[in-house]
């Protein structure tokens, strides 16, 4: 019989606490005296009710987190000790702080959960009985691999979009052109490509917007393609013996041609006005020498 009485009294208490909690959530600006007295007298019941509503994706999670923050600031050590002993509540808070947030509402919940754990790490670090609450912030940093304060600072930053300016627009012609076709005058005046990163810069830009490389001048770009002045000699001229040396003081050895006797004779050399040598005469002079050796 006593069991039924206790069960009935416990259910009636939980029902009454839930009604008071709902009223406190409806008016979060100021907590009523009845609510604060229930928190002081029955902290476990209040924590159990709050823990059940701290679910990821629930639309009321943010309101219950705000209520928990107000309770921690307003209540005494007894409620804090009950929180330090409630491991399930701590697990729910850590889960809300590390979960991936998609959408504005979930990001608000995650931001408030991280801020709450950061405050706990400062409030309860000097109390030995409440250090389990102070270690929750370090647990979140270990799970995410990021500093909690830095994560909060990044979440507070906002990105502003500005209107597009005329100089930000680079016109690109949709007309297909062959690769070897010269660029049209309109295309030349529209933009110039960076020779380092190939970014199309505006006509008035003196350096690349992306890599800051100065704009290449026409003289500098054309100097690399100028001919060096060296004369190209074909293979047919070398084989036919018509290789000519323009400079008279050249010491290069000319190629030699083979005769009928197997002796290699020099090809005609044209080095100057008085230095012409007939290759045929040299071949005749070298032929007896080859016979003597034989």
From TrEMBL:
Mind telling me which Gene3D superfamilies this protein's record contains?
Zn-finger domain of Sec23/24
Which InterPro entries does the entry mention? Znf_RanBP2, Znf_RanBP2_sf
- Entry keywords, A to Z: Metal-binding, Zinc, Zinc-finger
Source organism superkingdom: Eukaryota
Q: What is this protein called?
A: RanBP2-type domain-containing protein
Q: Where is this region: Disordered?
A: 245-294
The GO terms describing molecular function are: zinc ion binding
According to the entry, every stretch annotated as the RanBP2-type domain falls at 188-217
Q: Is NADP tagged as a keyword?
A: no
SUPFAM superfamilies xrefs: Ran binding protein zinc finger-like
- Species lineage, top-down? Eukaryota, Discoba, Euglenozoa, Kinetoplastea, Metakinetoplastina
A Pfam family annotated for this UniProt entry: Zn_ribbon_RanBP
């Amino acid at each position: 019989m006593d069991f039924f009485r206790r069960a009935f009294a416990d259910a009636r208490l939980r029902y009454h606490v839930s009604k008071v909690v709902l009223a406190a959530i409806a008016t979060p600006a100021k907590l009523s005296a009845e609510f604060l007295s229930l928190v002081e007298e029955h902290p476990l019941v209040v924590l159990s009710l709050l823990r059940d509503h701290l679910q990821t994706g629930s639309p009321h999670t943010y309101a219950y987190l705000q209520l928990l923050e107000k309770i921690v600031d307003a209540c005494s050590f007894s409620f804090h000790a009950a929180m330090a002993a409630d491991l399930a509540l701590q697990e729910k808070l850590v889960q809300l702080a590390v979960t991936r947030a998609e959408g504005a509402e979930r990001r608000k919940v995650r931001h408030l959960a991280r801020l709450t754990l950061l405050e706990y790490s400062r409030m309860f670090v000097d109390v030995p009985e409440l250090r389990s609450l102070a270690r929750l912030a370090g647990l979140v940093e270990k799970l995410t691999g990021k500093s909690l304060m830095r994560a909060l600072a990044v979440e507070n930053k906002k990105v502003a979009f500005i209107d597009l300016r005329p100089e930000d627009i680079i016109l690109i012609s949709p007309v297909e052109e062959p690769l070897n076709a010269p660029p049209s005058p309109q295309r030349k005046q529209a933009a110039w490509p960076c020779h380092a990163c190939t970014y199309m810069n505006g006509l008035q830009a003196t350096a690349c917007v992306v890599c800051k490389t100065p704009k290449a001048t026409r003289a500098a770009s054309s100097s690399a393609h100028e001919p060096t002045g060296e004369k190209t000699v074909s293979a047919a001229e070398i084989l036919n013996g018509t290789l000519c040396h323009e400079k008279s003081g050249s010491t290069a050895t000319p190629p030699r041609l083979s005769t009928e006797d197997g002796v290699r004779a020099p090809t005609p050399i044209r080095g100057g006005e008085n230095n012409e040598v007939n290759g045929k005469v040299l071949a005749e002079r070298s032929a007896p020498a080859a016979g003597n050796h034989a």
